[in-house]
Amino acid sequence: MKLESQLQLSPRLMHMVPFLGVVLLLLTFFLLGSSMVLQSGVRVRLPASSSLLEPMPKAQVITLSAGRQPQIHFNDRPVSLVALKSALAQPPRNGTRQVLVRADELAAHGLVMRVCQLALDAGYEVVQATTSPPSAPATATAP
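Now predict its structure.
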């Protein structure tokens, strides 16, 4: 006796499954990936510190570079101290009054303090960005 199946296979939908998987992965990547980026586009070497604060994703970012002619960037746009003062006087674009100062470890301390004071005078909460210190190598102890 020969048994035959009455089930009809539809190969049209089978070709859509890998395509939908790729689309959902790309959608997840782009939706979650952009919200986890806090770094500005200006490259600086942050000083090391063991202090730990909560992330400030909506903070205004001021970046200070080191060198003969230190540069100041406010939200990735180069500015002078006078332009920074006027930019901080404007109402914040996202409603939060927080400033994250990303100063290079070789930046002049006086400039860093002057920028922090400008932000404090404008009514912002100021936080300085640091990196975690390098982990100390494990030392062997004698029994």
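The mean pLDDT is 83.
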